[in-house]
Amino acid sequence: MDYQKKTSTERGNDTMPAALLHQKLMLPTSIKRLGELAYNLWFSWNAEASALFQRLDSRKWEDSGHNPVQLLLTSADALQQASVDPGFLEAYEQVISQFDAYMHESTWFQTEHAKQSHIQFAYFSAEFGFHESLPIYSGGLGVLAGDHCKSASDLGVPLTGVGLLYKKGYFTQKINSQGDQQAEQFQYDFSMLPILPAYQENNQELIVHVELPTGPVALKVWRIRVGRNSVYLLDADIESNTPADRQLTAQLYGGNQDMRISQEMILGMGGVKALRALGISPSVYHMNEGHAAFLTLERLRELLDLGLPFQAAVETIRSATVFTTHTPVAAGHDAFPIGMAEYYLGPLLSKLPAYRQDLLGLGNDPKTGLFNMTHLALHTSSLRNGVSKLHGQVSRDMFKGFYGDIQSREVPIDSITNGVHLDTWLAPEWKALFDRFLPGGWRNRIADARIWESLELIPDASIWQVHQELKEKLIGFARQNLEQQRRRIGESEERAAEVRSFLSKDALTIGFARRFATYKRANLIFNDLERLKKLLHDPERPVQILFAGKAHPADHPGQEMIREIYRVSQLPEFQGKIVMLENYDMNMARYLVQGVDVWLNNPRRPLEASGTSGQKAAMNGVINFSVLDGWWEEGYNGDNGWAIGSTESQDWAVQEQENTADIYRILESSIIPLYFSSQEQPQHHPRHPWINLMKRSIQSLAPIYNTHRMVAEYTERSYLPTADRAHHFVENGYDLAIKVADYKNFIRREWHHVKIAAVHDPSADSSAAVSSISAVEKLSTLKEVTADVFFGPIWPPDTLVELIYFEESGSDWNEVVVWMQATGDLKNQTQSFKASIPSHLKHGPNFSIRVRPISSSFAHSFELPLSVSTLQE
Ligand SMILES: *Cc1c(COP(=O)(O)O)cnc(C)c1O
What we know:
This protein is of the alpha/beta class and 873 residues long. It has 34 helices and 29 strands. The strands form 6 sheets. Strands 1, 2, 5, 6, 7, 8, 9, 10, 14 and 15 form a 10-stranded mixed sheet that branches.
């Protein structure tokens, strides 16, 4: 029973042997390490590396969708020329030495956590957004996962990703002349992508199997290198599978519930098997969203096979698992009819008939009777978090029912606010400017706010010059996108050429791009078209808006929004001022978040868990104009952008009205006047208020809303404490896991004995006297309350006795929890406790006493949802 204790260093011999790779690419000797660059996504966040590929053949680089492997495989002539071109060779050497320096430099993790160098963390996600050339993402969740892996590499955090390799990716979006979204499928040739098969020790390609009810499915394991780390992707499209099974990893978020549950089994169970076959034994498993939660069932099966009792096995896997939930939208939490879960988990359940109900119970949502992946994840993880402070709060409300009689505030779901990977999203033009003015080594210290103070040293004219350059690049990109679209749908040459005059670099430019989920309300700004028309048409102060985004193919209201935006963009009065670009992806996202002036985001509060595109915009000096939801609720400081909406209204219609009114009002009275606040263009105007705002926005947001800060937080608040605790659970033959399981069983069985036998409140005896003292005295005097608790067979130190009261604070009531101290001896299984509280509080509705089981071996103090409270009596 010791596989978890094996040293968990990643082995180097699990990718295609070097000789094979060499044979495949046939690169000239002088530039043969281009192969290494092409197969490491490091190129995707290093502009010099991308530029090197572009230099090889810029046409092919564009046509390949910035895919270096395809480029190398199809550019034999260009490679021969480059191999003897002194200019190319010089650039090549420079990039290679940069790459080598990156791969070998000492990192944050090595410095700060040197003792943990043997540890591995596994990160499971259904989607990863690394780069436009690897289309295995649909939106923010995937891009976050990609940025997480990139920062983990930068920081030296030993993290291995696990996901699925979708043969048809997500989909390519085309918009026809009616504004209809057409979702196009493209069958990718994996031999042309920056991925390689993982190999076993015997130089065979690695295949693992997952048992579905229709039989075992074979999965080929692929490896992507992401800087120092690797991500393994599973692929069912191999010959030994049935035609139906080969489709299982065809498409991200495609198909019905059967497809979804099969994919999630492949991800979770197949992913664990792949790690085992690779000899990787993670200390901690991070489930990025509930999609990955089946990984816990595979690990449970392993332990049950080893003979561990069920509850001890659950404690063991729980102690090594962390979970991030990503959405307050109920439909975003996968749930399957229980019969469906029974059918698909059939092969597992039939091997473990004794635990059938226990296993199904882990995913049971008692309210709906469904097997819910989020419930499974909550039951099998020891630390959990939402992705912004507000989302943490919303998640605590959502899952309060899980933890018995406790306040939302106490629900053990924390938050770690999302960020973005600076090197991926910050324009190279800004990096070059910052290199000149920010302290040396700033790129490795981006989470240090002091670094960003030096922004003050940058002349306004330089800031404006970079910003305008990026805006012009965006306008060029947008015109090309529109022209291509018009040509494709068969418009006249004249109509196609017309777009070349669309959009102006002198107009205040607003961007809106994201998945077109309905709660994001992409068309909100169209609620009053007349007013919008006036805004956009002021000849002195022109305004323009760019839209982009895909709607899920099954999301018809989302597609209706695209139709509406397209229709408005075609109206003569909005021609060239409102545009809808097609096929939003990471490439387009870079142009948009770097090139607009204002980034608009107006979701229904509080449905945006975090949002990250605004963070990308912020570091590029683009100003956020957003509903106070997700990350912006904590990022907005009153002085670094604009906030839409202030009320807490849960009535969607009321919220929509208020938000719409706010959008127009703020645009008219603040944004537009500020942008055009000088007769001259900002670059001729020293200390232009807009540039000032850009600086304040970067300074206040860039150091916080980046994934270096985020991954460091995951590492220190989640991964490392979990690894430490998990280690104690498995050492000495799972001794602690068994003890914790036994302890919980005992407490569950005996808890009914626990009673609060008596409460003694001195003020209850002398209320007349108390009411005669002044209000000030009342607040400052304390009284001692005592309680007698009957414990039966339970040992009192295994419990916490708390006195809870409410303190008025402004218009709110804050809950105060006081730990009561044991006094005297245990007599007749009864123990007395005391606490001092303000004397004006009366017994009864003003305070209550609560007894809960605790243990120093619990990950948090609400691990057993049991309590006894005076309020229940
Ligand atoms: C960053 C990004 C997202 C996420 O944007 P949100 O503002 O969080 O909705 C979605 N899609 C792409 C392509 C992105 O780059």
